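haha ok so turns out i had the wrong file open the whole time. this is the CORRECT one, sorry everyone. sequence first:
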Amino acid sequence: MTHFFDSHLHLTLKNQFSKKGNSTSPWKAITKEDLKDGLPELLKIFALGLIDKMFSSQSSPDLLIQSNYKLVVMPLFAPDIDLVKSLSSKKVFMKLLDKYRNTRFGTVLSIDRYQDLLKEKNAFSIVENDLALLPENDPYQPGRKVVFLTAKSQWNEATANTLYVVCSVEGIHSLRSNLGEKNGAVILEDIRRNLKKLQNRNIKVLMANLTHIDGMNSAFCNQAYAMDGMRVSNFDEKDLRPIHSGLTDFGNKLVTLLEEQEICTDIKHMSPQARFQLYKYRAAHSITSPLVSSHSGLCGIRFQSDSESFSDYIYSSRKEGDCYRVKVGKPAKYKFNNFPSPGFNATTINLFDEDIKAIYDSDGLLGISLDERVLGYTKAWRLNQDSFSDNVGSITLRGMGTKKILTDTDFLSNEENKALGLFNSTKGKLLYKCADAKELTDLITGNSTDIAPHQFHHFLNQILHCVKLGKDWDGVAGVEKMLTKILCIGSDFDGLIEAIDWCTSCEKIDFLKKKFVKEFEKTIITNGLFLPQNWPIDRIANRIFYENGRDFVLSRLK
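then structure:
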């Protein structure tokens, strides 16, 4: 039987926003029918045509077991206070929740629960409540169960109707009992105590993010900007922009604490300066444990090199308060027949080649997100003959007129902008290599009902780039290591993502795998790369979609 693994998906997150005392069960998927009362208005508020696939369940346990998932990493997560504030800042959204408070919609998305989360100082209590929402046995279909793995002896791949789970921590604030505490040493001891509580509950924490999407974890490190979707939808996300710098002394101590607990550091959500300082700290202290990036996309470029750097793709940069707003072009490197070359999302929340090398050298794990924007897919519009949507820029090509390029918007703190040497706000010298906006808008105009393949190409793009890096670093052995050890799926399902159209939930993962088997080998050849000998494409697919992750988790259990 085909099995699946995921290094980052949520089993209970959407149930955290349900009405207290009348909680929806994680075992029963939230559907469009549950949301039908307020869904049309919700679509308008978020300005996204496919928001129903964001709020419906993508990875509840019933869907996962039906879809042959065998082992997953479940994030323990307390919603960031500034995230909840940002959602609450849009009055029309809160009015919608209030309007439907006595309907099924209001049970699933409860205004009272949002208001409770705004006041909650004990983030760890939210995690404990999250775990309490998920009974071991499926109350709706007897015989199905969730098993929280703590030892290899528990593992039995042949056991039917069983989902094995280990945990991660998404944002170290999720292990804090008092978000008002400012003393780093006190916070660290609180984290240690709560990790012990999880151990006593037979919860294995495999990996942890030092930060998440706001400044709640600034005692440890700065976060990368992650909320451009909310900015585009006109939510007030200013408090979610990074204003600090790097990895702090207490951040170093936190890394040491995680090492003592045999918990891998998950570099997702760390700012670039924090990541680079982490690698230096690990090297200086001879830390060789695996690094993880559980649910990431790739920038497709090095941050710094003689031939290509992040600054070479900066379209514009301007200071806004404690940050710089930076527009970045989308590097296009690989070709797909009859479609525009997909561009990478090169904003700093994604991984530069240096980050991938750190994971590779540590024998770590890299989970590829299935969020279309993370992967680099961008919607763009031609407003009239000569103007386009805000994510399109114009550059002049010597002797060839102008080119319209796709861009993404990033925010970097003033301090990191300075530390990383990004003062130069002139347009980068490699912007001409970026994804062509006119090609995309023409594609959408002429083929608006069938652009899903282009999103799939963005998924393949991530794996292609890793193959290219493995080849550059270690030849055939590097390609094999990337495909059969390092890469896995880290979808971020149920994390309020806009999943690629060909895999909108875990129910479609088998379709995505089959599409990968059908398309990847010829795409490799088209781009001058190769598969390792004695590794047919179906075996490689098994490694990426299941076995790489399974083997990594089991290697961390005793």
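The domain at 4-555 is CATH 3.20.20.140 (TIM Barrel).
again sry for the mixup
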